[in-house]
Write a structure and sequence with these properties.
The structure is a homodimer of 587-residue chains.
Chain A lengths: L2 E2 L18 H8 L3 E5 L2 E4 L1 H20 L3 E2 L5 E3 H7 L1 H4 L5 E4 L5 E4 L4 H11 L8 E10 L14 E11 L2 H21 L5 E4 L10 E7 L5 E6 L4 E3 L20 E4 L6 H11 L14 E9 L5 E9 L6 H8 L3 E4 L2 H6 L11 E2 L2 E2 L10 E4 L8 E8 L2 E7 L8 E2 L18 E16 L1 H6 L2 E3 L5 E3 L1 E8 H11 L1 E2 L2 E2 L10 E5 L4 H16 L4 E4 L6 H11 L3 E5 L7 E6 L5 E5 L3 H5 L1
Parallel strand pairs in A: 1-31, 4-8, 16-20, 20-23, 30-31, 30-32
Antiparallel strand pairs in A: 2-3, 5-7, 6-7, 8-9, 9-27, 10-11, 11-24, 12-13, 12-24, 14-22, 15-16, 15-17, 18-19, 21-22, 24-27, 25-26, 28-29, 32-33, 33-34
Protein name (chains A, B): Proline--tRNA ligase
Subcellular location (chains A, B): Cytoplasm
GO cellular component, one term (chains A, B): cytosol
Chain lengths: 587, 587
């Protein structure tokens, strides 16, 4: 049975919705696919539901091919498992919490690691039951601070989340690879360009973790890639460490006056003006060592002041620092933090003074001192002398000061070398469309998922977690496939295969259109039939372009000559086709 | 690809779950269909998800046949529309409420009338757009006080809810009938016995309202039916009103002493002992008029004391009274209520005293007096005389007292006449599986859904609401289709068409089983294949009986003779079939 526009729940809109920030949101609303209910919360209209179902069907097929079995968990879950894992707390304001009439705490689950772990614990108890991969396609909730960009970042959204259970690390690697391969097949079938980037593991501390990013200028993530094939998100980028240099024969450090040097730039200018290098090479920001004071709130409640030393031509990238200190929360040091450490002379902080070491666990202040990996032994620096209006020149790492360790705190820049030697990197923007992640034994340990191994010994299961944002993918496909007139769906996810328009008022034309529709349906095409009797061809064309079904068949005056027009939405090509050959022309 | 038990997420259980109150719950958990997550909240395992998908597919087909279009709303909805309709308040403790990080109020929707109304208001504006029927299959939430009986009454449950929009009452009737017909087709295809009962409209006050009840001893609803085809739920049953009797020539009422008559039974005994009827017929409870004092809390905050008079052989049925006074909330009068009405002499209340009328809007007390429809003019009663230890005999309705109206307050009993003259009724228990309901213009009025009619005039749309409990239906089918050994699914919703067992250890048998499975799959049967190599036939048989696929094929020693056994789960019949004829035997 064709879907007839005379009797379909659809209203295309001429005006853009006021709240729409991105093209996909604007067009999906205007073309009658979705409708906003609250910030980040949408209703699905018939057209949108069809596209979503097609994406889900492709995901289901590839999950089945990967040996995963479908289950379905509630969105409403009790607090206890999330309390045990610690996430009830660590999610902070990011989730919806509620309680029932008896006062028991619940949440609307943002992801389901805990309850999948408990389900397997409930039902399985032997290595013979493993490996196991189970998944669901389910509506999830996050109380985003700024739900924006339509379906790209919603508060209610559909995800496919899969979880694997293995007894060994090798098993986990195989399960991980099976899901990773399935993801590649899924995104390929959906026609979605993707880059697989090494991802930071964040709070969960597993082993391998990769994100599938779709390169797009509206992406929320910045990632790093080289022409030679390296890709990573900014948090996971590893700085190439220079060779250490011998400091034999380097002169001793010298403390020099440096009034009015509140910035690296003013310090470099003063150095070049007052203290030029003997060999005439100008000082640059890269010759200075910038020391940034941060404070870390540790999960146990302790607050720690930390100093990070990095070349003066680099900035601290907080996203990278946050990962380095997780699960602690890191931020700038406050006046109160400085007050507790009078040994730090603001504006002139450095690891060394003429009275001895200033920074480092063993120093006068006892403050932990971490440096950028580029600050290798033997490098010489201009840095604060811990005396007002004085800097020290020629301070040598490994000789005059020793850091407590290195930290990936500096920003990543185009031209930085890729850690795998594949050449300089560039920065690009991307949107996360999938994530594969070796959880390891964290959840199994805290929730007690153990099985008997071949020797009858209880062993903790190792797990992986694999997510695809279904509704986000739909929005990204819409974002990538449109023109000034509307959506242009790829055939794999289009709401219909063919959009047939009957134009004009001639009953013979409408009768011919019915025949075309019947022959298309007989050939198993899914047909949207614009049989509205009183609209002008222009309105019907505009609606067809807005809705974006890939193939459009215009049944009009040509019927008298036995022809209809077949219109390719993507290319705009139109060609006359004899009525009897429409099915073949669309084949 | 067959589903192989060597690699499927399934664990059958030997033990009944401790919390299971009904057979369906017990078997669905034991056979690996569902798993409890919290009271009234379940996860769906692969087998359960398959049955649910089959039920949903049947519902979708019939909704399409009824001309309804599928949409999908969020579960998480903002407070405002429900505030406007008044239901944010009237739901009381029955819904889950929550708020987001900004403090805005939300609910987990228990039903979606408000937002469907607003969606149509948003998109449509003309009579030309109507009629319209839209539906969703979606997870709903109710914070039940006592979630019980597994899926039969959950806190998270799946419903199909449809809504119709029409411009005229005739249109609504047609839309209602289309959904009602679809429901009959759906329940017939699911093999579910149903009775359509007239239902009370409850709070919403529309026109037609019918429930589809499935007769079952575990049903939560009592309904009334006659052999002649009448059916109604108890709340909607209408008492047959006796003809009024002439009171010409009846004697005047007499006040008589009646000490120690705290109950109707003691009153009747005293009457028969002390004041026998002149004609010798004994007094019975039916000769007495019982007056019950209730208090109604009206929505505007007013509290009203009301007295209901009914024959002494009847009891007040609170469910019926609640409907009569909705949206007010009715309950027994408290001591405080009595204290405000000293004119009521507890234990001896009646509408009349020697000083004049005691009950009724125009009486000394001013208390509204409503009577059972059987208390017609001319009937004679023994009732309280409003004096301690005294009753009045021969008090005649319509002569000695006049009520303010009638009320359907009495219980319904087997043998009561059906209001349509189709004979005496019997009482049966049933479970609601569907509800079709003419909402009328309530939601359209409060939410402002108007469209232009043919004359360009704005008119308020009239609506219907149509619900089917998907997960409840699944449980009811399980409840009705099982035996001592497990589930016995009807073919229309079975998780698989055929369950093939390979028994023993002979590789030739397993190879033959692979061939049988391949030929069944080629014939488009959906096959569950028990290919587990090391289990005894007894374990495999027991699992097959527990899981309940309707047709089981046992591939075993008979393979040497070219035969397999085909086992009908429902009848228990087993027959040998040549391997090459298995497909035909199952056809």
């Amino acid at each position: 049975m064709p879907t007839r526009l005379t009797n379909y729940f659809l209203r295309t809109l001429r005006e853009d919705p006021a709240e729409a920030e991105v093209t996909s949101h604007r067009l999906l609303v205007r073309a009658g696919y979705i409708r906003r209910q609250a910030p980040g919360v949408f209703a699905w209209l018939p057209l949108g539901l069809r596209v979503k179902a097609k994406i889900e069907a492709i995901i289901r097929e590839e999950m089945t091919n990967a040996g995963a079995h479908e289950v379905h968990f509630p969105a409403l879950l009790p607090r206890e498992p999330y309390e045990t894992s610690g996430r009830w707390e660590t999610y902070g304001d990011g989730i919806f919490r509620l309680h029932d009439r008896k006062g028991s705490d619940y949440l609307l689950a943002p992801t389901h690691e805990e309850v999948f772990t408990l389900l397997v614990k409930d039902l399985y108890n032997s290595y013979k039951d493993l490996p196991l991969a189970i998944y669901q396609i389910q509506d999830k909730y996050r109380d985003e601070a700024r739900p924006r960009a339509g379906l790209l970042r919603g508060r209610e959204f559909t995800m496919k989340d899969a979880y694997s259970f293995d007894i060994s690390d090798e098993g986990l690697d195989a399960s991980y690879q099976a899901q990773r391969d399935a993801y590649e097949r899924i995104f390929t079938r959906l026609g979605l360009e993707y880059v697989i980037v090494n991802a930071d593991n964040g709070l969960m501390g597993g082993a391998r973790s990769e994100e599938f990013l779709h390169p797009t200028p509206i992406g929320e993530d910045t990632f790093v890639r080289s022409a030679g094939g390296y890709a990573a998100n900014v948090e996971a980028f590893e700085t190439v460490v220079p060779e250490r240099v011998s400091f034999d024969g380097l002169p001793a450090p010298v403390v020099l006056d440096s009034p009015n040097t509140p910035t690296i730039a003013t310090l470099v200018d003063l150095a070049n003006a007052e203290y030029p290098r003997p060999d005439g090479r100008p000082w640059t920001a890269a010759d200075t060592l910038k020391n940034v004071v941060l404070a870390v709130a540790h999960p146990d409640g302790a607050r720690e002041v930390v100093v990070i030393g990095l070349p003066g031509d680099r900035d601290v990238e907080m996203k990278r620092v946050e990962v380095a200190f997780a699960p602690g929360e890191v931020g700038p040091a406050t006046e109160a933090d400085f007050a507790k450490h009078p040994g730090l002379v603001k504006g002139y902080i450095g690891p060394w003074s003429t009275d001895g070491a200033v920074l480092g666990a063993e120093s006068a202040t006892g403050i932990r001192y971490l440096v950028d990996p580029r600050v290798v032994d033997g490098t010489e620096w201009i840095t604060g002398a811990n005396v007002d209006e004085k800097h020290v020149f020629g301070l040598v790492a490994g000789r005059d000061f020793v850091a407590d360790g290195t930290v990936e705190a500096s920003d990543v820049r185009a031209g930085d070398p890729a850690p795998d030697g594949s050449g300089p990197v560039e920065l690009a923007r991307g949107m996360e469309i999938g994530h594969v992640f070796q959880l390891g034994r964290f959840f199994a340990e805290v929730l007690g998922l153990k099985v008997l191994d071949e020797n009858g010994k209880l062993v903790t299961v190792t797990m992986g977690s694999y997510g695809i944002g279904v509704t986000r993918i739909l929005a990204i496909i819409a974002e990538d496939n449109n023109d000034g007139k509307g959506l242009v769906w790829p055939a794999s996810v289009a709401p219909f295969d063919v959009h047939v328009l009957a134009t004009g008022k001639d009953p013979a034309v409408f009768e011919a259109a019915e025949g075309v529709v019947a022959s298309l349906e007989a050939a198993r095409f899914d047909v949207l039939f614009d049989d509205r009797p009183k609209l002008s061809p222009g309105v019907k064309f505009a609606d067809a372009e807005l809705i974006g079904v890939p193939k459009i068949v215009i049944v009009g005056r040509g019927v008298a000559d036995g022809v209809v027009e077949v219109w390719d939405r993507a290319t705009g090509d139109r060609e006359n086709v004899p009525i009897g050959e429409v099915v073949a022309a669309l084949g």
